[in-house]
């Protein structure tokens, strides 16, 4: 196992995992499944990479929350069709729209958003991962492709999303499914972590721009809330290829799914532009609201003093 690069094999790295709250969940819990505060009626949720893994869990969670339309964008048509069939069978009251396309196809993404029109929640979940190797074994072509998928493509999606008309009386939401590797030096995730950090930092800037616009227009309904979150150590084919077998205990895939529904609701309104973890207890997070409001750097990507 000497050729494996993973931070949890180093106890010192574990001490660096941020825990601003006392309670750290590894399974979903009642507070975010039944008291999330998100009102799904009449809403449309778009999820990139929403046909498998965490994306599919989020698709299911939002449908359970009563949304009117679910839009899934994914590259592979087979899992996409399977997800559509399963969701429509289980939840016939929600319209499920699927598009087989790469988020790197900017023209196609623009067409899809224009066709869908009104979107209340957009979740940036699709991403390009990397092999579990040090940066010396990667090249600039891989770097460029990773940043195209993990930074440029979602950046363009956000720009197009902001152009869409809205009749909503509540803020629209953009959630970025990020990673601990965006804020921790996790060996084996150099390019992936760097690209996810870049997108997370961009969301902070989008959030600041929104707050400045709100201050000048005072139109709360035109506001868009941007939040980054780490989903946890969730079992997947990609994660299994990076994390040595038996090294850690996997966390519940439903935890980030239910947490994302809570994030899309009004209770998390104070987290504009912040970076949070799905494992953090939401009530203890709410208890930090005053600090979040007073300290613009708290729970953001930046230099720790």
SSE inventory with pairings:
Blueprint: H1 11-14, H2 30-34, E1 44-48, H3 53-64, E2 69-74, H4 77-90, E3 95-100, H5 106-116, E4 121-124, H6 140-163, E5 172-177, H7 190-217, E6 224-230, H8 237-242, H9 254-263, E7 275-277, H10 282-286, H11 289-294
Parallel strand pairs: 1-2, 1-4, 2-3, 4-5, 5-6, 6-7
Helix pairs in contact: 3-9, 5-6, 6-7
- CATH structural class: Alpha Beta
Number of domains: 1
Principal-axis shape:
globular
CATH architecture: 3-Layer(aba) Sandwich
Family: Belongs to the short-chain dehydrogenases/reductases (SDR) family.
Keywords: Oxidoreductase
Protein name: Peroxisomal short-chain alcohol dehydrogenase
InterPro entries: NAD(P)-bd_dom_sf, SDR_fam
Q: What does it look like?
A:
By secondary structure, this protein is an alpha/beta fold. It has one domain: Rossmann fold (3-Layer(aba) Sandwich). It has helices at 11-14, 30-34, 53-64, 77-90, 106-116, 140-163, 190-217, 237-242, 254-263, 282-286, 289-294; strands at 44-48, 69-74, 95-100, 121-124, 172-177, 224-230, 275-277. It has a 7-stranded parallel beta sheet with strand order 3-2-1-4-5-6-7, sandwiched between helices. Mean pLDDT is 90; it is low at 1-9.
Features:
305 residues; alpha/beta; Rossmann fold; 7-stranded parallel β-sheet; 11 helices
Write a brief caption for the model.
The chain is of the alpha/beta class and 305 residues long. It is built from eleven helices and seven strands. The protein has helices at 11-14, 30-34, 53-64, 77-90, 106-116, 140-163, 190-217, 237-242, 254-263, 282-286, 289-294, and strands at 44-48, 69-74, 95-100, 121-124, 172-177, 224-230, 275-277.
